[in-house]
Write a structure and sequence with these properties.
alpha+beta; Alpha-Beta Plaits; 4-stranded antiparallel sheet; 3 helices
Length: 104
């Protein structure tokens, strides 16, 4: 999500969270089901693989903590056999990074 979308959603009252998952041994079919769930869920803004530590990460936008808890409980119930552990992080500020090419 870019910074403009983040600010618009914040003005509308949405809160942003990141959920990181450590997965057990996952078959291709289970991985595809998990990815499709994340892709199709209206509150999940992105999904990505993570290097080092966690295996999978999603961004979640919700109006309140109750809505977040419902989404996490739904994920835990549908994918209990492949989730070893998870962490949730509240994103309260996002910085815009500008990268400049370096000349040698």
């Amino acid at each position: 999500m870019d910074i403009k979308q983040f600010l618009i959603q914040k003005k509308l009252g949405y809160q942003n969270f990141k959920a990181s998952f450590i997965l057990l041994k996952v078959s291709k079919a289970q991985e595809e089901q998990f990815r499709n769930y994340a892709k199709l869920h209206p509150n999940i803004t992105y999904q990505e693989d993570v290097l080092g530590g966690d295996d999978f990460e999603i961004g979640i936008q919700v109006k309140n903590m109750h809505e977040l808890r419902n989404i996490i409980n739904d994920i835990k119930s549908k994918f209990a056999s492949i989730i070893h552990d998870y962490k949730i992080h509240h994103i309260y500020k996002e910085y815009k990074n500008l990268y400049y090419p370096i000349k040698e």
